[in-house]
Amino acid sequence: MTKQFKNSLIKSKLVTLLFSFSFSFILSYGQKAVVTSPNNKINVALFNEQNSDNGSWYLQANYNNNGKTSNVLPKIAIGILRSDQDFSDELTFLKADKAQSITEEYTMLLGKKSVRNNAANEVTVHFESPSKSKLNLIIRAYNDGVTFRYEFPEKKGTYTIKEELTSYKIPDSTSRWLEKFDLSNEGIYHYANTAENQQDWCYPALFKAQDDSAWYLIHEADVDRNYAATKLSNTKVKSEYKVTLPAKDEGVGEALPSIVLPWKSPWRVIIMGSLANIVESTLVEDVSTPSVLTDTDWIEPGVASWNYWSHNHGTKDYQVVKDFADLAAEMSWKYTLLDWEWDQMQNGGNLEDALKYIHSIGVKPLMWYNSSMFKWVTSTPVDRMKTHENRVEEFTKLNKLGVSGVKIDFFLSEKQDMMKYYLDILEDAAKFKIMVYFHGCLVPRGWQRTYPNLMTYEGVRGAEWYNNGPELTTMAPGHNNTLPYTRNVIGSMDYTPVTFTNSQYAHITSYGHELALSVVFESGIQHMADRPEGYNSLPDAPKTFLKHVPSSWDDIKFLDGYPGKFTVIARRKGKDWYIGGINSGGREEKVQRLKFDFLPDGISYKLTLIADGEHDKALSTKYMVVNKSSTIDVKILRRGGFVAYLKPVE
């Protein structure tokens, strides 16, 4: 061992000891359990409100940023109100198990990374209620966040969860990006630095610590048939964002979930760290149930053409369907989607004719269905997915017709019954080797790991809203620059991007901005929403780029950005890298310094750079050779953007 290496090792051990000392110094008073992340940057501790072994309890999350420890979340209240008793105010601490290491590597067919590393330290804390009933709290500290869940370990009993008492106390003056709750999950994130607005909020919720030491994104994961999806609410105490079950009037079914023991809750998830940690995180899927499918060879992410954005009733017209199938073939896209009203197709052909034509040109068809959960939503076809018998009959037909996947729309409920419906669809579809994606739905909860045939979700205000009103026209530049830090962090997002022409309401983002959305936004099936002439009229370079841009990725690197302002993301597929950068409407023209230090040593890359031209409908293309030490400056218009493609020099 060299002297230099010994000194380095001593310094490394000293830093680790300082981190540990720092955390223990802050957290020791009244602390009953603690767990620290593998890299020693994140620490979560359990405290008793009464500083005893009995009473009410809370967690505290801390972050170590360059040797300085910050109390990021000072109080996360815990507790559950069950139909038979209250597990919050009089819980007796029994013991905390010895910390154990969670180490797991798994792969994903889609998403931001193909190889994932689920690595954490875990502690289980055991409590007892006054009636001697048991409650466990399972706490994990990851390098990029904190997760915890409740467990009723006893072997029998059926109960109703009347209320979950988990709440996050957010210090005043904390910067926050929040979306008002709506069952469609298609709102706009708004920035605030106070909690003056008291209402229900969608997941995920983004915060920046008061001292700028860390960012954190609050969400939930691994929701299953044994619970409902929840939301956040600060209606009672404005600084406390409480995990809240669905209200009675929010969709169909019973509002309060019914459970059978033994039982575990969904994971409460706090992604924490730098903005890069947030954007690159796979924590929501890391903690979710592993894949239940053993045969996944039939699952194929890809790009699709889509006629609804430009022709709201386009699938009723056989000629329009053919045009969009031809577009997919010309652009080398794998799929074309037949949206609603395919059962009413006319003008030269019907569904069977359309499917025959689509297959004849080497494209794979996808088809839309109504969830049929609401009588007032009469869009056809209806009543073909609602029951197991309906699905078996329909999936059998789709197999014979060669249909690869289904888009199912209009769920608009987050109650337990709807969770069962979602998962029943996924399981039945998998038996027939059919891919699925949901619209009018909840945001991701980690199901893409459990059910790899789940390709994407809507749960976002996407380009479809250019049909619904004028709001997206002015809000899109900032909105598009908020989604990479919020909604798209937690799973695939079917925004239906990359539109150069206009729908019913105009867009003011540049051609460069729209092109960049193909990289900035991730979706297992990426629906390119524009009409054929929107792509056919492009210059050769951007058209070629769109022919080859992937929809699933091997790696991600967040290069630069800030929520609502600008975003630069690099994604890798195989040995090739794709970069997308977008600017918001709130910033003037800017020059983005692009560094390539994420590239491997010793390899040169041919760079194709497609950026804004002299005006918002012009594009400029440059070619050069770069390596790890290279930097270039890219001019971006207000509301503009750029893409870059890097291929190793042979």
Shape summary: globular
Q: How much helical structure, as a percent, in the residues?
A: 10-25%
Give a quick account of the main beta sheet: strands, pairing sense, barrel closure: 12 strands, antiparallel
Number of helices: 12
How many strands? 39
Structural class: alpha+beta
Oligomer: single chain
Beta-strand proportion? 35-45%
As residue ranges, the low-confidence spans are 1-27
Integer-rounded radius of gyration: 25 Å
Average per-residue pLDDT, rounded, comes to 94
What is the terminal-to-terminal distance?
A: 39 Å
Q: How would you characterize this protein structure?
A:
The chain is α+β, with helices and mostly antiparallel strands and 650 residues long. The protein is built from 12 helices and 39 strands. Strands 3, 8, 9, 10, 11, 12, 15, 16, 18, 19, 23 and 24 form a 12-stranded antiparallel sheet that branches. Helix 6 (388-401) runs parallel beside helix 7 (416-431). The radius of gyration is 25 Å and the shape is globular.
